[in-house]
Every structure is written in structure tokens, then in C-alpha cells.
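As a warm-up, study this chain.
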Amino acid sequence: MTELYPTTPTALSRRTTLRAAGGGTLLLGLGLGLGLAGCRSAVAEGESEQPGAKATAAPRRGGTLTVAVNSDFTPSLLFAQSGQSLQQRLVYNTLVRYDDRLKPQPELATSWEYAQDGRSLTLKLRTGVTYHDGRPFTADDVIFAVKNLQNPLRAAQLRATAAAITGFEKRGDHELVLKLAHPVNNLFDLFEFMIITDRHSVEDAVAGRKLNGTGPFELTKWSPGTGLSLTRNEKYWQPDRPYLDAVEFRVIAQADALLSSLRTGQTQLSYGVPGRNLAVLAAHPDLVISEYSTGGGAHYLGVNTTVAPLNDKTVRQALAWGIDRERILKQVLGGYGLASATPWPKSSPAFSEAARTHYTYDPGKARELLKSAGHTRLDLPLLHINLPGDTAVAEAVQYDLKQIGVHVTLEPTDPATAQKNLISQSMPALWTMSHGFAQVQPSTLAVSAYPFNEAKNTSRFRSAHYTKVVREAWTTPGAGARANALRQQITDTLLDEAFIIDLVIRGSVQVAAEKLHGVTLNKFSYLNLDNAYLAG
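Now compare it with the structure written out below.
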């Protein structure tokens, strides 16, 4: 296979052990605001390993896995990464899956080859795959999936990458040539992100009436506000998979009830435990806490640059100097994570220590900057998701900003509404949420993530220079001096303009029953249970 635009390797494994003594990196689920004070060890080095107790000689078939989530499935966000993305990979497959070093592995695409000029890619597709309703999977389904993400009526990230695909050449039902308007270096990010939905029932899917995919489980029931019920797809293309009979997603919004469900075994898996509560579960003999360590996202403070005086970057920079990232990391997130002024995890080629520490906590400097801009006191609203972990981060930001004369009023908002506001650019002056997309190709963040999108971001920040650099970085092969220089220019712009103020890098922290094995997440927090089983 010829790869002119290969994915960038990362030195970190997908999931690492958390130690009771603390230290390491905390990575939180999107929008969940997790943290950790300590836990028992979990052997989990890489995607093929399994969190929990030592694996039995052979996986056990049968059983129902109950997953505790703190927000409900939102059908209208089916094609967007959000805190409601866990179920994606259970119902639908993607074209590829990344390994821990961002090297694409076959899923519905079995092989691929770039043309020498980088302007087309030939995919060979898996044969013998059927949708849950029995219809065969063909190249037409891939064409539809791309065009679906190109549709501006869909709430979807990676639309710019999908839009770069301008032509399709079918060579039978299971070979497809994608023709590109120009080379892009994040095409395989799209392939891992893009779920392959049924083109005949997509409107039923976004209305929550029917989810028809090729994945290991079939949706049997969605009870709004309560959860999802899924059963094994007996015609799944992977032989003898999945092992589980069924999966239940149970919405448990209250932290105390969530903890109780895990301790009593009513639920066996969750990514929604608030950081201050993880220590309570760490010593439980039947639970294991493990960490996905590829830096799948970050907590950040968003700034609406159209609201005065936040249209002045001096004021925005004052906010960046005025937040104590280390205190948030230690007191709110339990000490696990990476305080950072930039979105990049250490595994990213865009990471640098100098950029990470560009804004340290300096309230005196923050007050001086505000004064130089003509302000000694500001009163502003701050939207946040109304879940315990997210609320704790917002309260910490509120406290820090008050010390520099910026008084914010908290506006708790349910996750689905917050995500819709993010997409529609309807945020107030300030907001705190979590973002992803820094864990894959660096160009993807600036062309696809709603907070950072160069053409249309939530902050309503526009800059001809930012657009030029981002577009050039996106179309330049991912290695070499030029690529590094472009990534640095993107980072410098983010730091200087401060329309998104990153706080702490984080990904997903998994709390699982000791008897549960074989659970993984993909780079976009899609839950993969193909090899999962409940032992004993």
C-alpha cells in the first residue's frame, strides 16, 4: 500500500495503568469532567489488552453488559462526536480503525492505496457484510456516507475533509476510488470517524426511530431519558463475535446513584464518574479503573470574540494568564492530567513544552493587561454543562477569574443543548466544555473541531492568516520541516489570539467491573465491544 500522507505515530499506548500513588496522565471522557485521586492497578497496555482481572483461558459467551452514562443518546448528533458517542461503534462500523500509533487497520475497508500524486485513493471493501436488515454492504454505502457528511444540514465534524472528496469511481460492489480536489493529510481520521449508516433509513436514524448498521449489536429500544437496549447481531461479519448477548445503556445523571450502581454491580462499565468520586471506587475489590492515555481531548475556556470587550485579544490574554491550571488539575481532577495552554497531548507532533507552559498562573499580569485595556472589573456569563465534573471545572474557573476582577455568572446547561449551541455558534460571552480532535492528525483540529474551525468556529473568530496557515498545514504531508513549521504557526496563533483557552489535556477514564474484559475505545470515543466478555 502506498501512503503519501501517512498518519503520525505516537509513542504512547492506548490505555495505561493508573497507580494508587497518583501521578501519570488523566484523560477524561468528552464533556464528562472526570478526575482521579488514586486507584488499583489495571494491566492494560494497548488495545489488545483487557482492563480488569487476569483474562481467563477462553472468553465466555453470553451475558448482558450494563453501561452507566450520565447523558442520553441524542439522535440529531449521530454524526458529531460528543459525550453521546459511545454507542456509535456498537451499531455501525467505520472504514478503518487506528492502532495505538495512529496506523490505520482494516475494518470495512480491507486495503487502500494512494495514487502517486496524492489526488486519489483506491479502497478495497470487505465482502460478505450485511446490514441488520439483511441488505448487503457495497461501495454505494461508502459514497453515501461521504456525501452525508458533506451535507451542511448534518451536525458533523470533519466536513471539510469529506468535502475534499469530489469524485467516486466504482469498480464493482467492493472496490472504490475516491478522487480528491487536493491532497489532505487527515483522510484516515475521516475514515475512523465516519460511521457507515444505511442510506435508505438515515432520516429515521437522526430521528431516533431506526438505527440500521453493520455493527456487532442491533438497537432494539431507545427509551428517551432512560437509555438504549441493544442485542447481538447474529449475522455480524466477524466470526463468533460479539461474545455478549446484549448491551444496556442506563442514564444515571446523579453522581451518588452512579457510584451505587457500580459498587453494587447493577452496572459494569462507565466513563462518567466525576473526578472527585473516583477515589471512592478505587479500593473496591470488584472494580478496576484504567486510563486511555492518548490525550483524546481537553478542558477549555471558550471566548465569544464578538462580545465586547472580549473582541480585544488583550482581554482574552488576561483571562489566559488568570486561570490556575495546576490547581484545577490537582483539586478538581485529582492530579491526573496535563495542565496545558495548548490543545496538544504529548503524543502529538504539534506538542512542545514551551507552548504548553506559555500561560502560567499570573494574576498580577492578568490584572495589568485588563487595566491596560481600560478595565478593572468585568461581569460576564459562563455557560457550562450541568454535570458534576463539568460544574466543578466551571466553579474553579469562576473563582480564579474573580481574583482578577472578572465576575462570571454560571449558566448550567444540559449536554445536548450545550452541544447544539456549540455547533450553531450560539454561546454566551464565556463557556467551559471539553474538546477532542487534538489526538489525531493536528490539521484535523483546526479544520474540523467546532471550537477551532478556521472557517466557522464557535468563538466567531476569523483571521486570514489563521485560515491560510491551517489550509496549508492540512494539505502538506504530515512529516518534515515544513509540516512542523506550519503546526508551530497554528499553535502560535492559538496562543496569541486566545479565542480558545486550553486548561487541562484529558481523555477517558474507564471504571469497569473486574470480570469485564476486552473493552476498548477508538480515537473518537466510540465503544468497541467486539471482543468484550464477562468472566465467571
